[in-house]
Amino acid sequence: MKTKNSFLELLRIVFCLIIFMHHSGFLAEDGMNYPFKSAGFFAVEFFFILTGALTCKHIEKKVHNSSSVGVDDGIMKSSLCYTMTKLKKIFPYALLGIVLSYVFYFVSADYTKSVKDIVFGSWNIIYEALFLPMTGIMNADLNVYLNSPLWYLSAMLITLPVIMYLKERFNDVFDNYLCIFLPLIMHGYLINKYGTVGSFGTFGVLTYTGVIRGFSDILLGFLAYRIAKVIDGKMKKDNIILTFTEVLSYIFVIYTFNTNVDAYTYEFAILLLMLSLGISFSGKTYTSKISANFLNHLGKLSVPIYCIHWPVYKFVSFYFDGVTYWLGVLVTLLVCVLISECMMFIVKKRNS
């Protein structure tokens, strides 16, 4: 099975831009109906599910290549190391986003630059740079969090090692029960308790709703990979029906995330997104043939853009007060792309 192709990279940037547009509310006038205002935040589900599918592939490849028999006593340690390796690749961009947010914290006229503020802001940098906000030891409120979108990385740090442990230690129960029913139960809890799956900063049972959301969505990613394996074993390559289903499903999901509907319709879209990714991962569609360096590069850009767009929006809304909405969005996107390209170049040179 082929899990990384240019079509998936295209999807990365598309769902990143959906989140980007959702946060363009910084520039919108009161009551303005801008793109993805209603539910663009659900695009985060794509990245959680994708992370789960890629992690499942990693685990099964490791098991396949292993010559050892029995259960590895270091499963939890290796699971945490894998998660930290993923976060390490994102860290330079996340840290830049946090620092930019911290700078804005003091240059904007809305904040008092007292010693108390300086100390508080400094602690926020440390907690956010360590991806700890979703632990509950600091405030996850949007008005306090320096770089709000990074809650996703904190939730991944907390949930992914545990999920990997469960997968490797209890493979049979995990594959045939946990990754199927547990995400549905958790989504059902979020809908009935909070009215939406999309909550992240509300403290629920023992933890923030963002942790519950991340745990359930990553499990859906593992299920997506299982679906991909079934399709891979039963379908012919370049299946036109699968391709048609895949593309239409993504279109429906994106349309839904741009529409104001009830919580259960959003839930259906999330499950359809999981199925679509399962089809994409199977490598049996015509989209899996797409190969373009430009699209691959756009996929890489999604990471830094995601990490820095929040503070860049704040700077643009503050210093370009009165600018038209679409001009502000364009300026923000151009600044994000420019900074992202520079950061990617620096990181590449540093790692070479």
Task: Give a short summary of the structure.
With 352 residues, this protein is mainly alpha-helical. It has helices at residues 6-22, 44-65, 75-107, 115-129, 151-169, 171-194, 209-234, 240-257, 263-282, 293-319, 325-351.
Keywords for this entry:
352 residues, mainly alpha, 11 helices, 70% helix, globular
SSE layout:
Layout: H1 6-22, H2 44-65, H3 75-107, H4 115-129, H5 151-169, H6 171-194, H7 209-234, H8 240-257, H9 263-282, H10 293-319, H11 325-351
Helix pairs in contact: 1-10, 2-5, 2-7, 2-9, 3-4, 3-5, 3-10, 5-6, 5-7, 6-7, 7-9, 8-9, 10-11
Structural commentary:
The structure is a single chain. By secondary structure, the chain is mainly alpha-helical. Helix content is 70%, strand content 0%. The chain is globular, with a radius of gyration of 20 Å. The mean pLDDT is 90.
